[in-house]
Automatic annotation (TrEMBL):
Membrane-spanning intervals of the chain: none
Catalysed reactions, semicolon-separated: L-glutamyl-[protein] + S-adenosyl-L-methionine = [protein]-L-glutamate 5-O-methyl ester + S-adenosyl-L-homocysteine
Keyword presence, Transcription: no
Family annotation (CDD domains): AdoMet_MTases (cd02440)
Taxonomic superkingdom: Bacteria
Domain CheR-type methyltransferase: 1-269
Organism of origin: Clostridium tanneri
E.C. number(s) listed in UniProt: 2.1.1.80
Keywords for this protein: Methyltransferase, S-adenosyl-L-methionine, Transferase
Protein name as it appears in the record: protein-glutamate O-methyltransferase
A UniProt-annotated Pfam family: CheR
SMART domains: MeTrc
Amino acid sequence: MSNDIGLQQLAKEIYNYCGINFLNNISLLQSKIANRLVELALSPWEYCGFLKMEKGEWDNLIQLITINETYFFREENLLKEFKDSILPRFKEYSLSNPLRIWSAACSTGEEPYTLSMLCEESKVFGANTVKIIASDIDKKVLSKAKKGVYNKKSFSFRKMPQEMLDKYFLHLEEEYAVKDIIKDKVEFKNINLLDSNLVEKMEEMDIVFCRNVLIYFDQETIKKIIHSFYNILKPGGYLLLGHAETITGMNTGFKAIYTDSTFYYRKEG
């Protein structure tokens, strides 16, 4: 069995499992998994069989093929719109009916912790009236996210306002640790966005953030994921994507909202 056939099969397995598309970029897939194949002494074709026998190997593979570049306060214009325009629309929410936000594909936690800080700064909500679900397919990055501890020299702080750093982080010797007042709003979950039971597993959400994720999927996969978001969001709920991502013209049921500096989507109804 040639390596090319084995890599094509592996690309299909990955596409079906999580939607990441290497079908037209086999050389990139090969470079990402080369060391792992050497470590296991397996050909690409044998590795496909190994994945079927050793389900836990998917965790290792996901770490190799995903990109987890993120940082606090990424895309300031969208976050400003979230804090100043979107959050005040939920000011009537209460302890018995908390605001529910989903940070899908949260990586190492910078996005959900940023959202938690912005909710705190908004002064719109009382204690325990905001619930943020932060999810990722990669268990390793989730483990780091849950700890909420980041090296002071980390790329994560490249856009961090100094006042936020001083207010919401403990300053340790070589690290910054997110304070409990921010961590307590966030719950981390291991979720595959292509899970066929995703809608049943998730509670209804008011706001969904899924930024800089759809760029790795083809149109068919994007439609599946957006359909799931639509069904998970309450009527009138908001979907916020990355500035390089658009679902305009896809017939999704979302209405695009444009401001002077950014855009996002609202579920009609």
